[in-house]
Amino acid sequence: MHSSAVNLPLVRRLEAVSFRAWPASSVIYDGSWQIRLTGSHPSKRINCVVPLDPSDYGNCDVRLEKARRRFEDFGRPLIIRETTLMPPELRAHLYDNGWTVFEEVKVMTADLVNAELPETMAHLPTHDIGRFVEASLKVGNEDLSLRSPIAEIVSSIKPNLGLFIKEEVEGDPHATVICVQDNDLAGVLSLEVASAARRMGVGSEILTSALRWARISGAKTAWLQVVSTNVPALALYEKFGFEEAYTYRYWGKDNS
């Protein structure tokens, strides 16, 4: 991950909006390291340490051990999320001490102002969080025990929120997506398409509605995060003009 070609102010801005778009229940700082923990939900984005200053590396042994104990209290393995803001010395330290990268994620952005989106919206957002959570669990074939934790996370999102469900018949959802409009930026999160409805244009349809809503709401740029090995999702997003802004990686030790 070479920071020379990366727009660091943009990285900082996208990191800040992504923290607001998918909030952790506990956030504390150790220097400029953000320590994000959520006891009720295992999502890596809300259970990781994110170093946010390339020069803040001192006492990393002690700080990592302190963070490990804190994660242990939450019943979580310690995960470090490496963006281009992480000190290179910390990356070297992790590598030298047996940590490994176990996932890479692309952060992508698209211009909404000039995007070719239809004037009409096929789907309007719902404000019924309970109904949306039920639909997304069903579409993603997820464990129903996550109902309450996901509802809690979605309820705690502060910026303007659009929850989209694509269904022909109520109670039989084909796709769901969350769109978080934060001033001129709009985040696309948790786009899910039911396995039986894939390759039928459903993902494009619901993403179009979310982006159209975001643009009407005042967003000029859309952003999203996608695992770099998710080829079908990358193909869909590239079709909408999304391009890579930067990548980040998750590091784990004895737990990945």
Automatic annotation (TrEMBL):
The keyword Acyltransferase applies. Residues 119-256 form the N-acetyltransferase domain. The keyword Acyltransferase applies. Keywords: Acyltransferase, Transferase. GO terms for molecular function: acyltransferase activity, transferring groups other than amino-acyl groups. InterPro entries: Acyl_CoA_acyltransferase, GNAT_dom, Rv0428c-like_C, YpeA/RimI_acetyltransf. This is N-acetyltransferase. The lineage of its organism: Bacteria, Pseudomonadati, Pseudomonadota, Alphaproteobacteria, Hyphomicrobiales.
